[in-house]
Automatic annotation (TrEMBL):
Protein name (Swiss-Prot/TrEMBL): L3MBTL histone methyl-lysine binding protein 4
Cited SUPFAM superfamilies: SAM/Pointed domain (SSF47769), Tudor/PWWP/MBT (SSF63748)
Organism taxonomic ancestry: Eukaryota, Metazoa, Chordata, Craniata, Vertebrata
UniProt GO MF annotations: chromatin binding; histone binding; zinc ion binding
MBT repeats: 1-90, 98-198, 207-301
Protein species of origin: Cyprinus carpio
Domain of life: Eukaryota
SMART domains found in the cross-reference section: MBT, SAM
The keyword RNA-binding belongs to this UniProt entry's keyword annotation: no
């Protein structure tokens, strides 16, 4: 039912003025969204309407991402060489050995024609006001309560790359002079806000801009270069928005709240727990009719009285997409559903594709956040299962999802009552329960766990010595084979295979996931979860020994 106060989104959210001529398999260059300072070799993996799913050549589909066909983040093959930017080649290639002509020939592909890309601006970069190396104060968009010392790291057309001094590039972002996240030097002092000094600064509590710029030989970006204009969104406006948890889909949406530079988006027909705040200039917000105009499917609001379509049990979900990203195109259970309760309370994290131990957040844990606050200590977060823990590390707030390394006392107490109430519990299961329960009873499980480790290893001999880092590289089939090797877990192996659980997903399973969500019986659940603990302990023990 339509209401008279509903409107369409602002006119400046424009319709494209050309057709999408990209085709699957075409090669191009573009920015890695998880490493914004890097231009990579990309291939078009999928085309839907005016949108592209791009694949970073040489890496897992988990890192695929969606952009509009006119995105400023994509460039034709050869752009980096012609503009002096470094191109990061596919995995296995050395930068100085990569050649576009030979590469296209080797993979029997064609480069995307230059006329398909957004034309370069005829105006000089950022009006020649911003220059590489200039200093400014910028909001950390991953931790918005922080304003940090930053630099202009790169300039392309009207946009420049904001880099936080002495931090890695995963915090970087591209913006233009109108961005509300950037401020001139001295803005924090003028507005009574704390300024986060560069990592490793000798006196972060008494940071002085003049001294820092003298030490670094840098200059401040001129204050007149910063401009800002209102976004024009109003509550009740209608729009079409990309689903952040399932980015292959665009849904009918409504603006339910606004701030100076952000809007709160609600998917019509869905529970408000799926609402989320986004920047008003996000390219994933489109005016009414955008999908029809560009040939992109539009997901209508689910009907409240309709029967759930497909095999996914989550109301409104049709089994499209997967919590682990583009690697899987569909799901049939709560485990893989981007909208299930178990996944709404988990961040989707990926190991850094460039290696190392770093984990990168792909999808944030909370959609609805108390974003009117400037800092997390101004208001208490609601306590709930899978709560978000805000910890201050190295002068930077890091948002993490708490994944317990050991079973909780409450869980093991409940499990104890349930297990001992079963009449036909074999001696192996009883011994295994005792082993896990003893571990959980310890106030310091990481120290005391070795005391009963010999018993663990006797009960699950196939687990001994295997480290979590090795398990994280297991395929779905390898995980299923391992589960099958556990005594009495043959049926569960089939379930793990059907759920497409690979090594990374396996290590993220909590006791609640296995018992409550996957409905695994208590005996097998004990063996499976205890195996996960042993993998993690073996990793910790190895690190401690080295």
């Amino acid at each position: 039912m339509l209401c008279s106060e509903w409107h369409s989104s602002p006119s400046f959210q424009a319709f494209p003025d050309s057709r999408n001529g990209f085709k699957a398999g075409m090669r191009l260059e573009g920015i890695d969204p998880l490493h914004p300072s890097m231009f990579c070799v990309l291939s078009v993996a999928e085309v839907i309407g005016f949108r592209l799913r791009l694949h970073i050549d040489g890496y897992s589909e988990c890192y695929d991402f969606w952009v509009n066909a006119d995105s400023p983040d994509i460039k034709p093959a050869g752009w980096c060489e012609s503009t002096g930017h470094k191109l990061h080649p596919p995995k296995g290639y050395k930068p100085n050995e990569f050649n576009w002509e030979k590469y296209l020939e080797s993979c029997n592909a064609q480069a995307a024609p230059k006329n398909l890309f957004r034309p370069q601006s005829s105006v000089s970069p950022s009006g020649s006001v911003f220059e590489v190396g200039m200093k400014l104060e910028a909001v950390d968009r991953k931790n918005p309560c922080l304003v940090c010392v930053a630099s202009v790291a790169d300039i392309v057309d009207q946009r420049f790359l904001v880099h936080f001094d002495n931090w890695d590039d995963t915090y970087d972002y591209w913006c233009d002079a109108s961005s509300p996240y950037i401020h001139p030097v001295g803005w924090c002092q003028d507005n009574g806000r704390p300024l986060t000094a560069p990592q490793g600064h000798p006196n972060p509590e008494h940071f002085v801009w003049e001294d820092y710029m003298e030490d670094t030989g840098a200059s401040a970006a001129p204050s007149q270069a910063f401009s800002r204009s209102p976004h024009g969104f109003q509550t009740h406006m209608k729009l079409e928005a990309v689903d952040r948890r399932n980015p292959m889909l665009i849904r009918v949406a409504t603006v339910t709240d606004t701030e100076d530079h952000r809007v709160k988006v609600h998917f019509d027909g869905w529970h408000e727990k799926f609402d989320f705040w986004v920047d008003s200039d996000l390219p994933d917000l489109h005016p009414m009719g955008w999908c029809s105009r560009t040939g992109h499917p539009l997901e209508p609001p689910p009907l409240s009285d309709s029967v759930t379509q497909g095999v996914c049990p989550t109301p409104g979900c049709r089994g499209i997409g997967h919590i682990k990203g583009a690697k899987y195109t569909g799901h049939h259970s709560a485990f893989g559903c981007p909208y299930s309760d178990m996944n709404m309370k988990k961040e989707v994290v990926l190991p850094d594709r460039l290696g190392g131990e770093k984990q990168i957040t792909f999808v944030p844990v909370h959609f609805v956040q108390k974003t009117k606050r400037l800092c997390p200590d101004e208001e208490e977060e609601e306590e709930e299962d899978g709560k978000e823990d805000i910890s201050h590390v190295d002068n930077r707030f890091v948002s993490e999802t708490e994944i317990p390394a050991y079973p909780t006392m409450q869980f093991m107490t409940d499990l104890c009552v349930c297990v001992f109430s079963e009449r036909n519990m074999d001696s192996l299961q009883q011994a295994l329960h005792q082993s896990v329960f003893l571990s959980a009873m310890s106030a310091h499980p990481s120290r005391d766990l070795p005391l009963c480790w010999e018993q663990h290893c006797k009960l699950l001999p196939g687990v001994a010595g295997v480290q979590a880092s090795r398990v994280s590289h297991w395929t779905v089939e390898e995980v299923a084979d391992f589960i099958h090797s556990l005594p009495g877990c043959e049926e569960q192996a089939k379930q793990f295979r059907e759920e497409q659980i690979d090594g990374k997903a396996f290590l993220l399973l909590t006791q609640r996931d296995i018992v409550k969500i996957m409905s695994v019986k208590l005996g097998p659940a004990l063996k499976i979860y205890n195996s996960i603990l042993m993998f993690k302990h073996a990793e910790d023990k190895s690190d401690a020994d080295t």
